Amino acid sequence: MAIEKVAKLKIKRDPNYMYFIKGTTVMRVHRKKKGLKKYPHIKVKSFKHQRDNKYVYFVDKDGDAARARRAGSKGAPKRKKRATKKTAKKRATPKRRRKTAPKRRKAATQRRTRIKMDVSVTETRAPRRKKRATVDPDTKKKARKQKKELDTFLKDAGKRLKK
Predict the structure, then answer these.
(1) What is the pLDDT of residues 38-91, one digit of tens each?
(2) How far apart are the C-alpha atoms of 108 and 111, rounded to whole Å?
(3) Is residue 32 a part of any domain in this protein?
(4) 26 lies in which domain range?
(5) How many domains does the chain have?
């Protein structure tokens, strides 16, 4: 990678800080340590230079602004491809099927009961159904009566509006 200096800034580097270039400003931030919160970015120096997206800008060992060409940009040196070994293709083996657990019988349809002589007998019966909430017959009558009154009131109101 060809590194070229952009500007001489002569920044004295502190080993506890990381230096980077944001726009045309040199910033520094405290290095991360376990258990400590994030530190704010501190402005160190600014310099005049027009940035080019084909380059990566950074602060070099001498404390000056430098740039290097990005790997993906046009004109950058291309990496050599490594020679790969050709391996024989393996024959695909058929996948084994997993053994599934046996299906369980419904507990509601078959049930074991014990008789006094310790002999087990199976008896089949219908599955249990959930009980419905029961309502008093008096409240049902009241609800029907209220519904009839409401229907007659609405019919009368509709007739009045038509006249």
Answers:
(1) 888 889 998 888 888 889 999 998 899 999 998 876 655 566 667 676 666 666
(2) 7
(3) yes
(4) 3-69
(5) 1
